[in-house]
Design a protein that fits this description.
Strand content of chain A: under 5%
CATH topology of chain B: Metallo-beta-lactamase, Chain A
Largest interface: A-B, 22 and 28 residues
Helix content of chain A: 55-70%
Distance between the termini of chain B: 6 Å
Number of domains of chain A: 1
Number of domains of chain B: 1
CATH class of chain A: Mainly Alpha
Radius of gyration of chain A: 18 Å
Helix content of chain B: 10-25%
Oligomer: heterodimer
Distance between the termini of chain A: 50 Å
CATH superfamily of chain B: Ribonuclease Z/Hydroxyacylglutathione hydrolase-like
Number of helices of chain A: 17
CATH class of chain B: Alpha Beta
Largest sheet of chain B: 7 strands, mixed
Number of helices of chain B: 7
Number of strands of chain A: 0
CATH architecture of chain A: Orthogonal Bundle
CATH architecture of chain B: 4-Layer Sandwich
Shape of chain B: globular
Strand content of chain B: 15-25%
CATH topology of chain A: Hypothetical protein af1432
Structural class of chain B: alpha/beta
Shape of chain A: globular
């Protein structure tokens, strides 16, 4: 137990200085350093980096609103905070990424992790569109999907050796990653993710989605719909192998989830082209023109 | 009268003393608020005008006993805090000053931002040498009961750093401030085909900007007195001043009218604006709105008092 507490304390310390993903750092620096940056470029680059997205959401929500009135729209956050404030925040987050880039992502492949996160965000939003959710809430689905595996970043970067063995064990035992995380590190990425969401003050919806996305059966709360949507999007990304975030052998999505969401596996399959298209577009956007 | 407001600094950005600003004044933001028969003092902003206010307080309040007051800062840009070292009560034993204000996104705390002006590199007296008791309170959006029937409510406005608008309610009267403030704009609104055009963001931004502007208007709805940022004319605003965090006369007058404000005071004057120009603009706006609104409009002027 003492080990777990030590691990969590080390992770807590890391969270406050968690860097952007190396894959987005150069583009963030380019955009944030450009005095003529367009707001939509800023919007786009932030929405492609889970850490930066989380930080902007933290800022807007801690500065402006109580927990009952969470803001999850990046467009609104940029309008309210102002372009310069968001650019400064992006710069400071990206610089952290530059400083620590060498040690990043020893176990998980960064490109794979990024593609997976983006795919789950895009797919969660597509499912929500298909379910005719309120257009005002669509971004929340995207953000929840983008951030669902955020807890893997500290585990991967702070406990790299253990994470390498956890990943190796998933292959050997053909078991879900979170099970092996618990065995090797006493914590799983859902618990760590919840710590991050709490630290960023992103509110109960994000907290529930991140904490329960592998434990939907035991979820007691009222954010069930968005949780199931992200779980389904995650299963889709893993099954169709769009990106890779360490879960080669995820638990199957219970049939009841499809029924509850009113979607089929065919529906998910039909989203593959669109999800891949969004990721490729993002990839082109992120390539830095010198 | 329930609330009395006297201006000691009305200028934006930087003090501009000189022959062209004699009438309205060249000091930066400082407002003296007095409440009820007790003449209870509240100070708004510590711009260069607070030096003049200090003289009043020393003469009028100190003989009655140690100065115990609350100071509310709209934000921490230098023109709103630069007068702090010259507010004489900070040097007097027994003074108790509670300073409230928002802190922007940096890690520094309010006491550090305001108090750091009292370092040898800026000023010959250090913060530690002050004889007054000074307490700092970081504010966000919310309400505070200040006792004696006085309530203050805050609202975030639009400026390059965090700025709070204030609403003071006392004996059924309401005084609001909305400076430094620029209308929320849909920054995503570029023409189709232009680089950075994103249809969904344009639509969402439109709604967000409108809703945020409505919230500000709601904040000062029906106020007896509203002190509003009017640094620019609409023409000036469009010619390179968008995003600077200040309002136009047109915006302030229209918005106050729509919100059913009773008396609007034009404030935070552009430093380059001469008395003559300011008067000319005031006359032009007054003739433009004559007969079209019940809104009373005045120009903030150093030493001038407004009562509600």
């Amino acid at each position: 137990m003492q080990d777990k507490e030590r691990t969590l304390a080390a992770i807590q310390a890391y969270i406050s200085r968690m860097p952007s993903l190396p894959i987005t750092v150069s583009k963030i620096l380019q955009i944030a350093n450009d005095p003529k940056t367009s707001p939509s470029d800023l919007n786009q680059v932030i929405s492609l980096d889970p850490v930066l997205m989380g930080r902007v959401m933290k800022l807007i929500n801690s500065a402006y609103y109580s927990l009952n009135n969470q803001i999850t729209s990046l467009v609104r956050a940029i309008i309210m905070l102002g372009i310069n404030t968001v650019k400064n925040l992006a710069l400071s987050t990206a610089v952290l990424g530059q400083l620590s880039a060498k040690n990043n992502f020893q176990a998980l492949n960064i490109d794979g992790f990024w593609r997976h996160s983006l795919c789950v965000g895009v797919t969660a939003k597509l499912i929500a569109i298909k379910r005719r959710k309120d257009p005002k809430r669509l971004e929340e689905y995207f953000v929840a999907g983008l951030l669902h595996d955020i807890g893997k970043i500290p585990l991967n970067n702070k406990l790299s050796a253990e994470y390498v063995s956890a990943l190796a064990l998933t292959d050997k035992e053909r078991a879900p990653l979170y099970v092996l995380e618990e065995r090797t590190m006493e914590v799983n990425h859902c618990e760590v993710g919840k710590l991050i969401i709490k630290n960023w003050n992103l509110g109960p919806v994000m907290e529930d989605v991140i904490f329960f996305h592998h434990f939907i059966d035991s979820y007691p709360g009222e954010n069930r719909e968005i949780l199931l949507t992200v779980a389904a999007a995650n299963f889709f990304a893993n099954t169709f192998q769009i990106g890779f975030s360490g879960d080669r052998y995820p638990e199957k999505l219970p049939l009841a989830v499809y029924e509850e969401l009113g979607i089929t596996l065919d529906d998910l399959e039909a989203m593959e082209t669109q999800a891949n298209g969004e990721i490729e577009k993002a990839k082109i956007f992120l390539s830095v023109v010198q | 009268m329930s609330i009395r407001l006297t201006f000691w600094g009305v200028r934006g950005s930087i003090p501009v003393p000189g022959p062209t600003t004699v009438k309205y004044g060249g000091n930066t933001s400082c407002l003296e608020l007095r409440f009820g028969q007790e003449d209870r003092l509240i100070v708004m902003d510590l711009g260069s005008g607070v030096r003049e206010l200090a003289g009043v307080v020393m003469k009028k309040d100190l003989p009655k006993g140690p100065i115990k007051t609350k100071i509310f800062l709209t934000h921490t840009h230098s023109d709103h805090i630069m007068g702090f070292p010259f507010f004489t009560p900070i040097f007097i034993p027994g003074s108790e000053l509670d300073i409230y204000g928002p802190v922007s996104y940096e890690e520094d705390t309010l006491d550090k931002i305001v108090g750091d002006q009292l370092r040898y590199r800026y000023f010959p007296v250090r913060l530690d040498e002050l004889r007054a008791t000074i307490r700092y309170f970081q504010l966000k959006e919310g309400s505070l009961d200040l006792g004696g029937g006085l309530k203050v409510t805050t609202k975030y406005l639009n400026h390059p750093i965090l700025v709070l608008g204030y609403k003071f309610e006392f004996e059924g009267k309401v005084l609001c401030t909305a400076y430094d403030h620029e209308m929320f704009r849909n920054v995503f609104d570029v023409k189709p085909g232009d680089p950075g055009y994103d249809e969904a963001a344009v639509k969402e931004g439109e709604i967000a900007a409108r809703e945020e502007n409505e919230k500000v208007q709601e904040f000062y709805r029906g106020a007896d007195l509203l002190v509003h940022d009017t640094q620019y004319t609409h023409k000036e605003y469009l010619a390179g001043k968008t995003g600077w965090g200040h309002s136009s006369f047109e915006w302030a007058i229209n918005s106050a009218h729509k919100a059913g404000v009773k008396h609007l005071v034009l404030f935070h004057h552009e430093p380059l604006r001469s008395d003559q120009e300011l008067e000319g603009l005031y006359k032009a706006y007054m003739s433009a709105i004559r007969g079209r609104t019940h809104l009373k409009v005045s120009v903030a002027q150093e030493g001038k008092t407004f009562e509600v």
